[in-house]
Protein 1
Amino acid sequence: MYQTDIWKTKSSRIYFGIFDSRMKAIDIAKYNGLYTSNAKVVIEEVTLNQFKEA
């Protein structure tokens, strides 16, 4: 999860952590006041514990 400006530029990203569920990430973002009129919170989902041979 990270916070960014309203235009979502990469240079404005502030990293806030890795969570095991979307709901926990949203709860933490709300608790810490990361949702504002000048900033957006972006939650990216990734697949964990996955093994692939090339």
Protein 2
Amino acid sequence: MLPELPPLPALTRAEGELVDAYLAVLDQLGRINPARAEHTYGGLRAAQALITRATELRDALALMHQRGESVVHAPTLARAMRVLDGERRAARVTVPPPTGP
């Protein structure tokens, strides 16, 4: 049985879209990361998808701005990203530690 995840914090719809879009961008960047990739085709497909995900991220931020949501509540959004496995997803973007001597 899977452990119960903590609930997501209360977010506006635009904040939820921002978090989702940001994590989707991270996922694509993780797939493109040449330090972790195995094949060029997967990286190519991820790079193509990145354009769409980046547009969604831009649109979420634009919507927040248009609605007067000018302050980013970083601790709340960070908590939401942790619940959505953001730390693991962000780790795929980094360069892995060296292996061997």
Protein 3
Amino acid sequence: MSSLSPFSKRNLIDELFRDVSPGFFIRPLHGEPLPTQIKLDIKEGDKDYVIHAEIPGSSKENIHVNIEGDVVTLRAEVSQTDTNRSDDKLIRSERYYGEVSRSFQLPVDIDQQASKARYENGVLTLTLVKSAQKTGQRLTID
């Protein structure tokens, strides 16, 4: 069994095609394939959390944010396509599409009514307000 990582295998295949037909080898147009997980930055303030999530290749209509107590779930349909002019001769096209999602738990419940979301330039910014209500109760130990 081979111990090559998927990245190493891809480079090996690239090298094979480069050696077989060096004049016709073209690198991928968009670099890496569809990300397997949404990347996050989470900052905590006194009254809220500010979250930046990278979701390139999606429109705001295809992004869904679900909040249940202290659990936040992000889900997005992502697609990347090329536009070609009628006089273009397409030699190679690499596109990706699919769905990515991520769930994470915060230390406190979130006030859904006061929270906000904005999507701009491939980054979803969530301002999640901490809930003032305590949903749990500490038990006295006898």
